[in-house]
Design goal:
The structure holds 2 protein chains of 2 kinds.
Chain A lengths: L4 E12 L2 E12 L3 E5 L6 H8 L7 E6 L2 E2 L2 E3 L5 E3 L2 H8 L2 E4 L11 H11 L5 H14 L15 H13 L5 E5 L7 H17 L3 E5 L3 H7 L2 E6 L2 E6 L1 H6 L4 H11 L2
Parallel strand pairs in A: 3-10, 3-11, 8-9, 9-10
Antiparallel strand pairs in A: 1-2, 1-4, 4-5, 6-7, 11-12
Helix pairs in contact in A: 3-4, 3-5, 4-5, 5-6
Chain B lengths: L11 H41 L4 H16 L2 H11 L9 H26 L3 H9 L4 H31 L11 H12 L3 H28 L9
Helix pairs in contact in B: 1-2, 1-4, 1-6, 1-7, 1-8, 2-4, 3-4, 4-6, 5-6, 6-8, 7-8
The chains are: A alpha/beta, B mainly alpha.
């Protein structure tokens, strides 16, 4: 883990109409760090990931990924101007995302879901992409499901394909947007196991928005509690979960852990 | 006699049997006009749909105006316009081509709306996943969005195929010898309209039933692999 932040939010503002979702957010993630983001719904947790994945633009401030501004480009005179699609495409290669609703392509087989972008975007041959896809399916424990279609799999299996699909693009940063929230309770474990294994064995930078408090505690180096578009409190999981400084954090943890 | 085939007016049945080959020649023209018009409607409609979905108003707005115009003026006017006005600008097309083009253009306005609805029904998450994977806009449209939209639009397109078929007789006003026009000529010459017109009705019924069945077969055959259909 180096000290250089790979992700940096500098006074980032995001508004949806009159609603301010991120209110001058300052937020940093170091290379290789595993950070969990917790907080009540509507606190802007998912928005942070969606801004990083370039699915939502920003209304103020600067987001930096790998030392380069994400939503801005440097003009010849050194000033920052809004990013072009070309710049966004280049920046996006560093990031991968796992969605709450999986968002697999329903008309493609599991393997094709994983190989489509590596072939089209990274320029791998079909053979290379297939081999990498099969390795990734092995990693998520679905080697025997390659030729099935998404709707033939359980939710937990679909989400594991979603993880393999994101990994196939070799991102440095992997974003998990409530990856288990759409799953039946008995299927949550298999997905968390895969994420936990990745966190342990890979030097990927991981950002996880989750409601699974016990898992967040086990897997992360740092936990951030979001409230009203800002980080209310952050720290090592054992500190934040056992002895939070803020009353608001305490209330939130009590409310979720009682369930 | 028409198309070199003579008719036999000795009895009703003999008359019917003798004019059937003549009507079938007309029917072949009807089928050709339908198929050509339908393919023009499918191709041009997709272009309209893509233009109307463009983020730039300077592109989407003219496309919206043109399709609105095509939809809200009678086919007959468009047909006359193409047939009588275009030659004044030096563009002269055979009657059959003019007819098929008029049919295709008018229906392209309808099919563009079907495409639009089918494309918009594809979940937002599909666009987001494609973007997160850095797929290009074109690739996303042709390989992610369109394959999921097509099974949704096939039934509606099938209805327009049948509609186009039923509009082909309008082409007779610009001298296309489609089935109804052929039947009318036979009636004019024999003073027997009952038999040819009844036969045209029956042949039309057969054609539309076959077309509908074909669309249903296609609909059943298309892979729908877990694509949520409305």
């Amino acid at each position: 883990m180096s000290d250089e932040p790979i992700i940096k939010f500098d006074k980032v503002v995001k508004r949806f109409g009159d609603l301010t979702v991120l209110n001058e957010l300052d937020f940093e993630v170091k290379k290789g760090e595993k950070v969990s983001i917790i907080g009540p719904s509507g606190s802007g947790k998912s928005t942070v990931l969606r801004i990083l994945m370039t699915l939502e633009d920003i209304n103020g401030g600067v987001v930096t990924v790998g030392g380069e501004p994400l939503w801005h480009e440097k003009a010849p005179d050194g000033s920052l101007v809004p990013a072009s699609e070309t710049h966004l495409r280049k920046m996006r290669t560093q990031l991968g995302m796992v969605f709450q609703q999986f968002n697999l392509f329903p008309h493609m087989t599991v393997l094709r879901n994983i190989t489509e972008a590596p072939v089209q975007v990274l320029g791998l041959t079909k053979q290379e992409a297939k081999q990498r896809g099969e390795e990734l399916l092995e990693l998520v424990g679905l080697a025997d499901q390659a030729q099935k279609y998404p709707h033939q799999l359980s939710g937990g299996q679909q989400q594991r394909v979603g993880i393999a699909r994101a990994l196939a693009m070799r991102p440095n940063i992997l974003l998990f947007d409530e990856p288990t929230s759409a799953l039946d309770p008995e299927l949550v474990g298999e997905v968390l196991n895969v994420i936990g294994k990745l966190a342990e064995e890979h030097d990927l930078t991981m950002l996880l928005v989750t409601h699974e408090m016990r898992f967040a505690r086990e897997v992360s180096d740092r936990v951030c509690f979001f409230d009203q578009g800002r980080i209310r409190e952050e720290g090592a999981p054992e500190d934040l979960f056992t002895d939070p400084n803020e009353e608001r954090t305490r209330e939130f943890l009590q409310a979720v852990l009682d369930n | 006699m028409l198309f070199g085939i003579a008719w036999d007016t000795s009895s009703g049945w003999a008359f019917a049997v003798s004019i059937l080959p003549i009507l079938l020649i007309g029917m072949w023209v009807t089928i050709q006009a339908t198929v050509l018009g339908f393919f023009i409607a499918l191709a041009v409609g997709l272009v309209w749909a893509a233009l109307k979905a463009a983020p730039l108003k300077i592109i989407s707005w003219p496309a919206a105006v043109v399709t609105e115009f095509l939809r809200d003026t009678p086919l007959l006017i468009q047909l006359f316009f193409l047939y009588y006005v275009l030659p004044e600008f030096g563009i002269t097309l055979p009657a059959f081509m003019t007819g098929a083009l008029a049919l295709g253009l008018q229906y392209s306005a309808y099919t563009s709306e079907v495409y639009r609805a089918g494309i918009e029904a594809v979940a937002k998450g599909q666009h987001e996943a494609a973007r997160a994977l850095n797929l290009s806009g074109g690739r996303t449209f042709t390989h992610i969005i369109l394959p999921q939209a097509i099974p949704r639009i096939v039934p509606a397109m099938g209805n327009y195929l049948v509609s186009i078929m039923k509009d082909v007789p309008l082409l007779s006003v610009v001298t296309v010898l489609e089935m109804l026009n052929v039947a009318r000529i036979i009636g004019d010459r024999t003073f027997n309209y009952l038999v040819p017109l009844s036969m045209v009705g029956a042949l039309y019924l057969i054609m539309t039933l076959v077309a509908s069945a074909g669309v249903r077969l296609l609909d059943n055959w298309l892979p729908k692999q877990g694509i949520p259909l409305k």
